Amino acid sequence: MKAQEKSALYDQKQSIEFYDDRYKQGYMDEWPIEKKRKLLEVIQDIQLPAKGEALDFGCGNGVLTEIIRQALPSWKIYGTDISKNAVSNARLRYPECTFFEANSSDFAQKKFDFVFTNHVFEHVYNLTEVFNEMNEYLKPESSMLHFLPCGNEGSYEWSICQLRKDGINTEIENRFFFEDEGHVRRLTTDEFCKLCHTKNFELQKEFYSNQYDGAIDWITSSNPMFVLMFSDKSQALDEKAKQKIKKVRLYLISITLLRLPTQVVTKLLRKKNKQLKHYILLLMGLSFWIFSSPFDKYWKRKARKEWETKKSEHNGSEMCLYFKRS
To answer: What's the pTM value of the predicted model, to 2 decimals?
Structure first.
């Protein structure tokens, strides 16, 4: 994204238009099974009360709002988003949850026991302002759970950033070079905790993922063009860094190509309203899928094992932080 376009995301009106357009085009239409499983596990771990009312703040299409409903069957579950298109999609897909547009007058005085966000605060136009807006939905005694990219030192992505001149942009709130175009910042645990302390929230539990194997898993299951961009050596700090990045590219591309047939077939199977060309691609891809599937399953298992054994290690590239206020 160009600098001029990036700066527009710090404007509330233009940010709303940006995400409304994205959701119209199918943005975040689904989340991986592993992501849903991870959310279920974390909600079970934090041991919320038997009953209450929960809000998914920045709910998007409502995919994870529904997971919260499944995890908390005796709770009333709500979702809100700045995008009208996202809220409309969510209402159609998950009628057992209640969805409303941000700043809706019907919910202006509504207070919740628990708020959840998933990858929201790296997107918002004004971090403090939006956090305060979220806080207005919370009761004096309440709790909140946040998933977001992690800027702590030591993750695989962080180590790649150290090899590049443009690795971490300190002028745009420490944004990593490969971030999604809608990301305007990357926070560390301490930075996010400092923000939460302004409203008297104290960190109760913390979980981290994608220290190494999880990072390899998500990178190599991405579009090959993204992998090429991630391993581009043109911005290497020096010759030594360039050689390291070249090795990174060879490693990541090899894994990506081995997994690619499985990724393509999986996406085609999930695609709604398939056309003839999609069925032809499916038939072509299935023969390669036989050889590709074991590699795909291997990296998913590796990522899963890392989450099970290293979720307390702070050098993950994704963090999940649980806070309470009393």
So the answer is: 0.88
